[in-house]
UniProtKB/TrEMBL annotation:
Residues 43-132 form the Methyltransferase type domain. This is Class I SAM-dependent methyltransferase. GO terms for biological process: methylation. Keywords: Methyltransferase, Transferase. It comes from Chitinophaga qingshengii. The lineage of its organism: Bacteria, Pseudomonadati, Bacteroidota, Chitinophagia, Chitinophagales. It holds the Pfam family Methyltransf_11. The keyword Kinase does not apply. SUPFAM superfamilies: S-adenosyl-L-methionine-dependent methyltransferases. GO terms for molecular function: methyltransferase activity.
Length: 254
């Protein structure tokens, strides 16, 4: 299955249950990366619009570039109220945006699907002079007994979970996107609480887990029920995240 099609049958759960980004990222980017209300933002691999929403709330014009039709349509539906939202059919490697047209380039959870060399070249093409890049994603923590049990379930039942690479981004990879020595790392705390139906929805939103037509789906859900019953408190379980941001100037090749 192509990476651009992996989430086509999981969009509803993705919209409902994936974590959003802390509101604190906006004042941080205003202070550290020159974000203003007038900044034009390209959100690359924008999915269902989770990463675009904070910038739209800030008044920014956002070009949301997403190759997956179902995810793009979900974003168009949920963000229709924002006049500055523009939905673009494109990829990280070929955004279709004009040369030197954006002040800030954002990539959320989709970063690890990109062809990094081609994407770096495309970022440099669409970036204005002194444009900033922002790579951000929510990293689920694995310290509590519940978090460890959930992680074990992913390894037990996940189809290709071990191949997910977003936890380990090397300086060499970051150097493809940012001007040499310019990027900074910042961590924010984030969390979600789930009852069992929501926990099941979160699990089902992951492209590497069996879907209901997979023979392994029933066993996976049974194991999830067991974990929930063991660790729930007042009918809820807690997911903790670290929201990682890498920000820096896009390398200028003009």
């Amino acid at each position: 299955m192509k990476s651009t099609e992996r989430f086509s049958n999981r969009v509803d759960n993705y919209v409902k249950y994936r974590p959003h980004y802390p509101v604190a990222i906006i004042p941080y980017l205003c202070a550290e990366a020159g974000l203003t209300h007038q900044s034009v933002v390209a959100d690359i691999g924008s999915g269902t619009g989770i990463s675009a929403a904070p910038f739209l709330d800030n008044g920014n014009t956002v070009y949301a570039v997403e190759p997956n039709k179902e995810m793009r349509e979900a974003a168009e539906k949920s963000l229709l109220r924002y006049p500055n939202f523009h939905s673009i059919t494109g990829t990280a490697e070929r955004t279709t945006l004009p040369h030197h047209s954006v002040d800030m380039i954002v990539a959320g959870q989709a970063f690890h699907w990109f062809d990094q060399e081609a994407t770096g070249k495309e970022f440099r093409r669409i970036a204005k002079e002194n444009a900033y890049g922002v790579l951000m994603w929510n990293i689920r923590q694995m310290d509590t007994p519940f978090e460890k049990a959930y992680e074990s379930l992913l390894h037990q039942h996940g189809v290709d979970y071990k191949d997910m690479k977003h936890r380990n981004i090397s300086p060499a990879q970051l150097g493809i996107f940012f001007a040499e020595g310019s990027f900074r790392e910042k961590t924010f705390q984030n969390a979600q609480r789930f009852d069992f139906p929501a926990l099941k929805g979160l699990l089902s939103s992951s492209s590497y887990m069996p879907d209901p037509e997979n023979p392994g789906y029933t066993a996976m859900v049974k194991d999830l029920e067991d974990i929930f019953e063991q660790y729930q408190e007042n009918g809820m379980v807690l997911f903790r995240y670290e929201t990682k941001l890498y920000t820096g100037l896009i390398a200028d090749t003009r």
